[in-house]
Amino acid sequence: MMELTNNLAIDAAPSAAGNVMQLEEQHKNETLAFLSTRILHTFVMTGWLHDNGVVNPLNRGTFYAYRNQAGQLDGVALIGHTTLFEARSDEAVAAFAGLTQECSAASALMGEEKKVKQFLNYYVSGRPAPRLACRELLFEQRQKQQLGEEIPGLRLATSAELDLVTKVHAELASEETGVNPLAVDPNGFRMRCARRIHQDRVWVNVEDGRLLFKADVITQLKEVTYLEGVYVAPEERGNGFGAACIRQLTNQLLEDSKSVCLLIKEQNAAAGACYRKAGYQLREYYETLFFQRLN
């Protein structure tokens, strides 16, 4: 994990050799084409564009483009609650860092480790340094794995299980970020959980009213499916149950997608062992920054 202080080392921003523009629906196809060249690293933005379109409150932010002097896309970013960016030049990174600095709603930034460090070079003074940085591992699975004993209760969640799913997902978010979403945005958080269930994106194993396993499909594309919010009940950890659920779910998702990926904290050795047991391989190091709120 990088050391964060209130005095970040700042490089001089490159001169603007292009321009930033807010994207509209008419730019959707061009934006998707740009992101498709590195789909394993742009799956979240790509998925949200497919699910929500370019301009939608559900994106919890605004899509921007950086164009070079020839008018070609040199970068795309979603600036907002979770900031994401794909940039092919220092100028684009500098522009997106400036936009993020000015965004009072910016809560976190996620990206490949080397790109996040590049971003921090242009995250200039005037806003407090990020309050937390987490190094994460991107795991991917591309081939179905041989199953042992099938988990018969692994299925899509129903609306009747919204309370179970919401409670556990809030606990996971609190552990990850230090902020309980049910305390700061209870209605919005519950709505997002309900929407994901309605979209058939939440997989669960429930026994006698107890949630034993949960996984949320955040992005579901032909090229890649991205999992998040994976939970295994404490009493089922360490016995192979979690790996069996992940393996079975991954095989199911690979029916419609070329690969399945997920992110875990580097220090979560138990989760890493579980995913490796399920056949996943490490692909890339990521970094997630959590920003201090502006007053």
Low-confidence blocks of residues = 1-17
Topology, number of strands: 12
The CATH topology annotation of the largest domain reads as Aminopeptidase
**Secondary-structure arrangement, i.e. CATH architecture of the largest domain:** 3-Layer(aba) Sandwich
Q: Please state the structural category.
A: alpha+beta
Counted by DSSP, the helix tally is 9
Count of distinct structural domains: 2
Gross geometry = globular
Rg over CA atoms, rounded to whole Å, is 19 Å
Q: Which percent band covers the strand fraction?
A: 25-35%
**Strand and helix order:** EHHEEEHEHEEHHHEEEHEHE
Question: How do you describe this structure in short?
Answer:
By secondary structure, this protein is of the alpha+beta class. The protein has helices at 28-35, 39-52, 90-102, 113-121, 162-177, 181-184, 186-198, 241-253, 269-277; strands at residues 18-22, 61-68, 73-80, 82-87, 108-112, 132-141, 155-156, 202-207, 210-220, 225-232, 260-265, 281-290.
